[in-house]
Description:
Distance between the termini: 30 Å
Structural class: mainly alpha
Strand content: under 5%
Shape: elongated
Order of helices and strands: HH
Radius of gyration: 15 Å
Number of helices: 2
Largest sheet: none
Amino acid sequence: VIVGGTYLLGGRGTIGGTFIGAMIFAVILNLMNLMDVSAYIQPIVRGLIIIIAALLISRSFVKSRKAATVT
């Protein structure tokens, strides 16, 4: 559950965050269908969304770890 804000390496996530992430993902997929985006492009866009979410979460995870070790 990357899009909802839960860390893959362990950590805390909330049901609300997961729900909001899933809803945002569903809205984006629905918009792609309404905009008549090609069926071949849609999985690429989904994958990019997941990769970007994973990168953002891992970046914040590393920053919070560094902050915890400094103090």
